[in-house]
Amino acid sequence: SSELTQDPAVSVALGQTVRITCQGDRLRSYYASWYQQKPGQAPLLVIYAKNNRPSGIPDRFSGSSSGNTASLTITGAQAEDEADYYCNSRDSSGNLLGAFGGGTKLTVL
Amino acid sequence: QVQLQESGPGLVKPSQTLSLTCTVSGGSIGSGGYYWSWIRQHPGKGLEWIGYIYYTGSAYYNPSLKSRVTISVDTSKNEFSLKVSSLTAADTAVYYCARGEFYGDYTGAFDYWGQGILVTVSS
Lengths: 109, 123
What we know:
Strand content of chain A: 35-45%
Structural class of chain B: mainly beta
Distance between the termini of chain B: 39 Å
Number of strands of chain B: 11
Number of helices of chain B: 0
Distance between the termini of chain A: 30 Å
Shape of chain A: globular
Largest sheet of chain A: 6 strands, mixed
Radius of gyration of chain A: 13 Å
Largest interface: A-B, 30 and 26 residues
Number of strands of chain A: 9
Oligomer: heterodimer
């Protein structure tokens, strides 16, 4: 089983706000990064270092962290945001990028 | 703009060794500062970190794969490679190479990815 736990599926109405969560003990000390993956495509970094967006990522994507939970929030979800989302952080062996969550399938209704 | 491109066989036989190469353009591996990574995704499943290597040759591996995996780097060719031995059908996956960056001691990210290469293990 994954060291980082994500809900398998989440849905949101078009234009509404959705939060995707990632839980793990090491998130109390280490920040997560977040990736969006659409069918047939490579993952795309959307949030890094808790709440930083790479160039080109819309500002409706934001990140936060509290206790053992990291969150990705999409404010005003668009149809093109429908995708799988993965969190990533340190694993139990000390590799800073060694653990991925199981992924959350986001459906935009 | 950094670009990564995987290359290698799409079909490998069980018990054999898989060899993949990732060619980097738009940036120099030898400049340092990044961890050159391999990640795989089984069909219809999530992402699995395989390992990464620094330009000095220091490599770090997923403990669950460490006994079968070797990552190497060739700074003169600006490429890095993955070898996975003793293949089984369970190694069938899309293999991605990616660039990892650390932001201090407490976080990092994979900021550039290759398009991925599907490797099927079958006789």
